[in-house]
Write a structure and sequence with these properties.
The chain is an alpha/beta fold and 328 residues long. The protein has helices spanning 5-10, 52-57, 60-65, 92-104, 119-125, 184-198, 212-221, 231-240, 265-283, 286-293, 310-319, and strands spanning 67-72, 81-82, 89-90, 107-112, 130-136, 145-153, 155-160, 176-179, 205-208, 226-230, 244-246, 255-262, 305-307.
Length: 328
């Protein structure tokens, strides 16, 4: 079936691609290794990277407690997942927050909420002060929560090794793909399909399968040419399983990724403090080290930004020609 664009605009857009099951990755998760940083000490000792203005921007309760509550479902490599061998929380976003502790002068405590659907409600209610899981910044989500922008992400196609069907990410017309119903990649494919039809070409055929393991199995068996993925996740999967290959990004569909915060005065203060820290991490090269460690190919943005309204999202997009407004 070829889903309509409206379907995806109504649905809860999933991160920046379809969900990834860790069962495919059993025994192949990337080992945790340290970035050139260490967490702020619980005894309050300040790192040489400590930024007073970032600390002062934090909400008063966080300054007093010296801690921030953060959570993920830890099921989405390479952004936030579990190390299969040790059970430790690892990933791009975990490393970013671990490093940010030094700049903010606080300690971040992590909770595994188990499923993606729990994350936004946890931030919205204030149960957690930061939630993360490779989430895209889209206008629909800004009705409930706010974001701290830290990276650009894009959509690709996961194929069998050698790409035997010849999937061309720059020309998907007629391609036979599988995706999760709530994936951003599925929305992108649907948009591409509309463009194909307007050109008088065959639409992109998209089979919706909620279970990623089944979707990936269909690709490996040759039943379907490719599966929806983000470029970073596709690269991780291909590295973990050499039977897979990931295409280049689908051009024109890069979106902003961010950490999610409560849509409130407290969330705004925390967001502005975190954006100061991440901008400093960009300036001193810490962000690039984290991206390199996890094989993230997209360019590190020059500056982080707190985003709480559709207008601020528009301003972010206007300042970055690589980004598009994905939905909402």
């Amino acid at each position: 079936m070829t889903p309509s664009t409206d379907f995806f605009q109504r649905g809860p857009i999933r991160r920046t691609t379809a969900a990834v099951l860790l069962t495919i990755l059993a025994g192949a998760a990337l080992a945790s290794c340290s970035v050139d940083s260490s967490a702020a000490r619980a005894n309050g000792a300040k790192s040489e990277r400590f930024i007073q203005t970032a600390h002062d921007a934090l909400p008063a309760d966080i300054q007093q407690s010296g801690t921030i509550k953060a959570a993920s479902s830890f099921d989405y490599p390479p952004f936030a997942h579990l190390n299969e061998a040790s059970g430790d929380y690892v990933g791009v976003e975990k490393d970013i927050l671990d490093s940010a502790q030094e700049y903010l002068g606080v300690k971040i405590n992590y909770t595994n909420l188990g499923k993606f659907e729990s994350l936004i409600p946890a931030a919205q209610s204030g149960q957690e002060q930061i939630v993360f899981d490779g989430m895209g910044i889209i206008a629909d989500r800004l009705k409930a929560v706010s974001f701290v922008y830290y990276a650009d992400a894009d959509v690709a196609v996961l194929t069998r090794k050698g790409n035997p069907s010849g999937i061309d990410p720059a020309h998907l017309c007629g391609a036979d793909l599988v995706d999760a119903p709530s994936g951003l990649s599925a929305m992108v494919y649907a948009k591409e399909s509309e463009i194909c039809v307007k050109k008088g070409e065959k639409p992109v055929h998209i089979t919706l399968i909620p279970d990623p393991a089944s979707a990936h199995a269909a690709v490996l068996s040759g039943q379907i040419a490719g599966a929806g993925t983000g470029s970073a996740t596709g690269a991780y999967l291909a590295a973990a399983n050499p039977k897979f290959e990931v295409t280049n990004p689908v051009p024109g569909w890069a979106t902003a990724n961010g950490f999610i915060l409560q849509q409130s005065d407290s969330g705004a203060k925390l967001g502005k403090a975190l954006s100061i820290a991440i901008s400093a991490m960009t300036a001193d090269g810490t962000m690039q080290k984290i991206f390199d460690k996890h094989g993230i190919k997209s360019k590190v943005p020059g500056k982080s930004m707190y985003v709480a309204t559709p207008e601020e999202l528009d301003a972010l997009i206007a300042s970055n020609p690589n980004l598009v407004r994905a939905a909402g």
